[in-house]
Write a structure and sequence with these properties.
By secondary structure, the chain is an alpha/beta fold. It is built from 14 helices and 17 strands. It binds 6-O-phosphono-beta-D-glucopyranose. 6-O-phosphono-beta-D-glucopyranose (BG6) binds next to loops. Catalyzes the rate-limiting step of the oxidative pentose-phosphate pathway, which represents a route for the dissimilation of carbohydrates besides glycolysis. Pathway: Carbohydrate degradation; pentose phosphate pathway; D-ribulose 5-phosphate from D-glucose 6-phosphate (oxidative stage): step 1/3.
């Protein structure tokens, strides 16, 4: 509405996430004319900085995503003029009162809506929320707070954080971000499944043999070892990003596309799962490796990581959903850092069952598994959805081939894919909660992983070491084999 204004305060403005993701996403939204007419952006952090210095810092990471447009630098200037800085302590009500005064100057007599993005460590979330809600919340519009993971490190600490936040905010004001939910292909999952007759009826144990959720990076924790060591790959990727994808993938049909209906179904599916068992998990940690004259450092070579750290940088796990749709179907997750370069990927693989009484059985030799259909949703990089099918190789003989029906986004769509943070920030401004995590979803997610995490830590279970740049621990293959699963081929 033209009479209202939105003030976005990025708390922790000089941090990495703010610089790399949040400011560029806000600019992209501005560039695409998606921000409201009246908006102001404030960076808030402890260090002293002028508005000009903030603008200079921000300008370094802004890019023109759609570089064909000529007026990009003009747009950047306009955007930067609407960015300001306020220096303050995170636990000082007085400093937030000063921020409030500045915000009011920009808002004038309009209805003032305020969004706070907490791009700060979780141990100061509550200080900021307390000060911001008491001293800098809107008097005549909405106030919303976006929080980034980690939302605690187990069920208890997460519940304590939720209780703390709810002293100052109601659930509707809290936007818990999981940026994987903002990724184009993750959002498309429901469209693919619920609007295509060729998929929807197949989405169950009757036709699906297993589902694989794979996250693999070809670089280590470079520079983030200190943070990472307190969490590990299970908390960093599995308990949130991969589990959220699993919930969206496996949920029952929601009554509608409304946020509450979707989140109700996600919670149900999470609650139908058994907490992870140690015997269904493999953990690994990368070690230094020399290749082609270059030595790649191991995880514990990072100076901020204790030499005897047993924190996993790789994990594979088998999960099961105890409901009528998915009974007995293994959902395998695999997440790792410092893996093979060809494995820099996030993807979902759905392996279908064999065709009963397959007439062409003989053409596949003994390896019938190779002949089952597989649907691959490549979330990144180079977004694609493809279906592996069996096909006759043209010619007079009868030889079969595995081929792909391929939807390659770059070839099919000329428009650039927005960054996940763009969509999520826009949704938060518009009050759309569909892609944010509700507190009961979070509780359910933690209940699945907390007993395992405690056991790993109490027993200090040693991860299997794998060389930097390798395919990861061999244990992951044994785990899959235990459930008659073979990890999908490389994309
Ligand atoms: C973050 C994790 O949530 O996601 C990082 O903390 C990881 O460890 C990152 O590198 C991956 O995000 P993306 O969008 O680059 O796949």
């Amino acid at each position: 509405n033209n009479d209202s204004t939105v003030s976005i305060t990025v708390v922790g403005a000089s941090g990495d996430l703010a610089k790399k993701k949040i400011f560029p996403a806000l600019f992209a939204l501005y560039y695409e004319d998606c921000l409201p007419k009246h908006f102001t952006i404030f960076g808030y952090a402890r260090s002293k900085m002028t508005d000009a210095e903030l603008r200079n810092m921000v300008s370094k990471t802004l890019t023109c995503r759609i570089d064909k447009r000529e007026n990009c630098s003009e747009k950047m200037e306009e955007f930067l003029e609407r960015c300001f800085y306020h220096s303050g302590q995170y636990d000082s009500e007085g400093h937030f009162i000063d921020l409030d005064k500045k915000l009011k100057q920009h808002e004038g007599s309009r209805v003032s809506n305020r969004l706070f993005y907490l791009s700060i460590p979780p141990n100061i979330f509550l200080d900021v929320v307390k000060c911001a809600s008491k001293s800098a919340s809107s008097v005549n519009g909405w106030t919303r707070v976006i929080v980034e993971k980690p939302f605690g490190r187990d069920s208890e600490s997460s519940a304590a954080l939720t209780r703390g936040l709810k002293q100052y905010l109601v659930e509707d004001q809290i936007f818990r971000i999981d940026h994987y939910l903002g990724k184009e292909l993750v959002e498309n999952l429901s469209v693919l499944r619920f609007s295509n007759l060729v998929f929807e009826p197949l989405w169950s144990r009757q036709y699906i043999r297993n589902v694989q959720l794979i996250f693999s990076e070809d670089f280590g924790t470079e520079g983030r070892g200190g943070y990472f060591d307190g969490y590990g790959i299970i908390r960093d990727i599995m308990q949130n990003h991969l589990l959220q994808i699993l919930a969206l993938f496996a949920m029952e049909t929601p009554i509608s596309l409304e946020a509450e209906d979707i989140r109700n179904e996600k919670v149900k599916v999470l609650r139908s799962m058994k907490p992870l068992q140690l015997e269904d998990v493999v953990i690994g940690q990368y070690k230094s490796h020399t290749k082609g004259g270059t030595t790649y450092p191991g995880y514990i070579d990072d100076k901020t990581v204790p030499k005897d750290s047993v924190t996993p940088t790789f994990a594979a796990a088998a999960l099961f959903i105890n409901n009528a749709r998915w009974d007995g179907v293994p959902f395998l997750m695999k997440a790792g850092k410092a893996l093979h370069t060809k494995r820099y990927v996030a993807e979902i693989r759905v392996q279908f069952r064999h065709v009963p009484g397959n007439l062409y059985k003989g053409s596949f030799g003994t390896d019938l598994d190779r002949a089952t259909n597989e649907l691959v949703i490549r979330v990144q990089p180079d977004e694609a959805i493809y279906l592996k099918i069996n096909n006759k190789i043209p010619g007079l003989g009868m030889r079969l081939d595995r081929s792909n029906l391929n939807l390659h986004y770059a070839a099919r769509y000329s428009k650039e894919i927005p960054d996940a943070y763009e969509r999520l920030l826009l949704d938060a401004i518009e009050g759309e909660r569909r892609l944010f995590i509700r507190s009961d979803e979070l509780d359910a997610a933690w209940s699945l992983f907390t007993p395992l995490l405690k056991e790993l830590e109490e027993k200090r279970i040693a991860p299997e070491l794998y060389p930097y740049g390798s395919r990861g621990p061999v244990g992951a293959h044994y785990l899959a084999a235990k459930y008659n699963v073979r990890w999908g081929d490389l994309s």
